[in-house]
Amino acid sequence: MKQLGLATEREETWLRQENKEINFSVIGQYVDYLINEQGVKNVFVNGTTGEGMSLSIQERKQLAEEWVAKGKDKLDHVIVHVGALSLPESKELARHAAGIGVDGIAVIAPSFFKSVNKDGLVAFLGEVASQAPGIPFYYYHIPRLTGIKICVEELLDGMMEQIPSFKGVKFSDTDLLDFGRCAKKNDKGQFSLLYGVDEQLLCALAMGATGAVGSTYNYFGKTNHLVLEAFAGADLNSAQKYQFCVQEFLSFVIAQGFGVPQIKVVMSLVSGIPMGPPRLPLSSASEEFVLKVKAKLESLKNCPNSLL
Ligand SMILES: CC(=O)N[C@@H]([C@@H](O)[C@H](O)[C@H](O)CO)[C@@H](O)CC(=O)C(=O)O
């Protein structure tokens, strides 16, 4: 947490920032921070934390371009979320992503019509994927936000059969029964299962996760790498210790109300790079949250398992 002092200074900047425009200029700095401070070399752009669904198509394209440009020769993978409510917009984003050379695209279930069925959803995903034929395709499952609760295990057969570029699932849900059934289908390691509920990463690894995508890796990247390493080395005690450390922080912030605005506060405090306010309809985190989370982060500096 050596950046805390710097973040305090910049915090006023982000709280005062009123125009809510994207600050593209910090992306290069953020790439270096992720690599050097967090050991993270893969990014997922325009997802939930990045408020992708609150951005215009043009903004999403510009962001994807900037991440690809600034990540060139530095990052291993830039996966861009291209999901949208409208199929033509999602296809346009997929074509654009393919054109700028991303390493993967992901699509969330379009969620205005909740009565979507499995075949309709797979057909939607397939049409989007077909616009970027050589690019690995991921289905982004986050039912808590989309309200689309079709089990991923049910979708898998359709996606594997109908989407030639299907590469895997970003699974942001606590349903480890569904997750385990997906892992069973992955017995030959045909696809990636990227878990996205960071407080339960270790459980998902035990079940068959092949990787993870989440907001926490912005600021607890190193600690989470230790979870991965300890698990890979069959050192369950250490893996638990590191996971408990992440859980201690997340249970504290979740009790305060932890959504994208609050995640941005933590990311700004730890990185020292201002993430700015969220876009409406989300509102900035309260000053009370900022003070509490600062104190919590300070206290974690003394946690023997924390690499903050
Ligand atoms: C709802 C939400 O934001 N979920 C996060 C988690 O990383 C979540 O913040 C974390 O598990 C803490 O609860 C991710 O699954 C989302 C994510 O990866 C994204 O930004 O697309």
Brief summary of the model shown:
It catalyses: aceneuramate = aldehydo-N-acetyl-D-mannosamine + pyruvate. With about 300 residues, the chain is α/β, with parallel strands linked by helices. The chain is about 50% helix and about 10% strand.
Strand content: 5-15%
Q: How many individual domains?
A: 1
| Low-pLDDT segments, ≥5 res | 1-16
Instruction: Report the CATH C-level class.
Output: Alpha Beta
Gap between N and C termini, in Å? 5 Å
How many β-strands, per DSSP?
A: 7
- Major β-sheet, in short? 7 strands, parallel
> How many whole angstroms does the radius of gyration measure?
19 Å
Structural class: alpha/beta
Order of helices and strands: HHEHEHEHEHHEHEHEHHHH
Q: Roughly what is the average pLDDT, rounded to an integer?
A: 92
Helix run count: 13
Write the CATH fold name. Answer: TIM Barrel
Order of neighbouring strands in the sheet with most strands: 1-2-3-4-5-6-7
Describe the global form.
globular
Q: What compounds are bound to the protein?
A: the ligand CC(=O)N[C@@H]([C@@H](O)[C@H](O)[C@H](O)CO)[C@@H](O)CC(=O)C(=O)O
Helix content: 40-55%
Q: Supply the CATH superfamily name.
A: Aldolase class I
Q: In the CATH hierarchy, what is the architecture at level 2? A: Alpha-Beta Barrel
Oligomer: single chain
Keywords: Carbohydrate metabolism, Cytoplasm, Lyase, Schiff base
EC number: 4.1.3.3
Subcellular location: Cytoplasm
Pfam family, one: DHDPS
